[in-house]
Each structure stands twice: as C-alpha cells, then as structure tokens.
Design a protein that fits this description.
Elements lengths: L6 E6 L19 E2 L2 E2 H11 L4 E6 L3 H8 L8 E6 L6 H6 L2 H4 L4 E5 L2 E3 L2 H6 L7 E7 L7 E5 L5 E6 L10 E9 L3 H5 L12 H10 L4 E5 L4 E3 L3 H8 L1
Parallel strand pairs: 1-4, 1-6, 4-5, 8-12
Antiparallel strand pairs: 2-3, 6-11, 7-13, 8-11, 9-10, 9-11
Length: 237
C-alpha cells in the first residue's frame, strides 16, 4: 500500500567551515541561493510534495534558523526543532528525530542539498521499500558515498569516500533519503567509523544487508551539494 510520507527531517546543525567568512553569521543552510536560503528551497519543495510536519535539527547559530522559520506557519507547514549539542556524526543526528518520527516514515535531507523540487514527489512515495536512497551518476564518489546497486536498482552496499584501489561505483549518494522507523534499530547500535564519527551510511548498509528492501532513486534534473563558495557562486551566477 502506497502512502504519502508527511514528515521530514532536515539536518542544519553544521557551520560549514569551507564557506569561510560566509558562515561567520549564518549556518550554511541559511546562505541565500537565488534570492532565498537553501533551507527555504528545501522546505517549500517538501511542502509542495505533501509534507506537513518538519523537524529541523539545529546547532551552530540555531537562532538564525528559528527566527526565520518560526512555527512554519508562513510557509504552510508545522516546524519543530531539535538541538544537536555534540557534532559526532550523521548517525547520531538521526537519533534526535526518533520521537518526532514516532511510528511514521519520514524524508531526511541534508540542509545544503538543492534538487529539482519534482524529485520530492518520488521521495514521499515510499511504496513497499523500507528506505529510499537518492543517487546521482558520475559524481566524484571520493567526496561522498559510493552506492552499489543491483539490476533492480536496489541498494546492496554503501561505502563512504572510497580510496583509490577500493571497490567503487558510478552511483553517488545524493544526500536525501526516505526511511521507515526501522532505521532507528540500526542507528542505535552504530559504532564509530574510522573517521571517529557515527555514520548514517553504516546504518543504511546494515539495513540493506539485513534483507530489507532499500530502493535507490536517481534524482532528475538539477542537483547541487552547496559545499563551498565555488558551488555557491555557480548557483548564483
């Protein structure tokens, strides 16, 4: 039975040090792109796809995010907030959404990922899958995650920033997901990665390799990880 996912979790706690002085006063997700904050593009795209409730995970300059979005009323959604006190990885951040999600599925997006809003309509239609992982083809997987898929476009493995000589894939983890609450079983038992962080991607790999269906979804149209001033200048050019 296909249902429309009506909750979303947005990760907006980081400063974004690669943005240098641009984030002296703003958290990276609040940097304007084409006239409005990155996070506003995401909120409006999700709203138009049917999402009604959003949890924004805040940290650095949380006041800027709260002051701008408030209760979400002027954007047509209900917005709540959770504070990430310790920056110890994406796996731990998802744990902050456990109470918000309850028994419901939810979309999860990093607060600095811009996509063609039409993609959100596919992400809120979870179908039979336990999770959806968005992917882009032929991005530099050494900067993110390599997603391994089978002929049915189901995720079989996920490797963070593979080094030269390690197994790789043409499919890049694009940073937007849809999860059922079962993801919390796997984030709860994460151990720190070699980078010293709790990685969400480790939990997703375990979910897929436990026999659950994790569907890959190729994003259509524009996609941008607003990771540095060069990407930002291109978007605003």
């Amino acid at each position: 039975m296909s249902q429309i996912v009506q909750k979303a979790v947005l990760l907006a706690a980081g400063r974004g040090t690669r943005m240098r002085e641009l984030t002296d006063e703003l958290p990276k997700p609040m940097i304007p792109v084409r006239g409005k904050p990155i996070l506003q593009h995401i909120v409006e795209g999700l709203r138009d796809a049917g999402v009604e409730r959003i949890l924004i995970v805040v940290g650095y300059r949380a006041d800027v995010v709260r002051d701008f979005f408030g209760t979400g009323a002027r954007f047509g959604v209900a917005i709540e907030y959770a504070d990430q006190i310790v920056q110890d990885g994406t796996g731990r951040v998802v744990e902050l959404a456990r109470d918000f999600a309850g028994a419901d599925s939810f979309v999860l997006s990093y607060g600095d990922i811009l996509v063609n809003p039409a993609n959100y309509r596919r992400l809120v239609a979870l179908g039979e899958a336990e999770a959806i992982v968005s992917v882009k083809k032929n991005e530099d997987v050494s900067k993110g995650g390599a997603v391994f898929i089978n002929e049915r476009f189901e995720l079989t493995d996920l490797r963070e920033k593979p080094k030269p000589g390690e197994p790789t894939s043409p499919w890049y983890n694009a940073g937007i997901y849809t999860f059922r609450p079962s993801i919390f079983e796997f984030t709860a038992r994460l151990e720190k990665s070699p980078r010293g962080e709790y990685e969400l991607t480790d939990a997703i790999r375990e979910l897929a390799q436990s026999g659950k269906l994790v569907q890959a979804f190729e994003l259509e149209g524009e996609w941008a990880d607003v990771r540095d001033p060069e990407v930002l200048a291109e978007l605003n050019g």
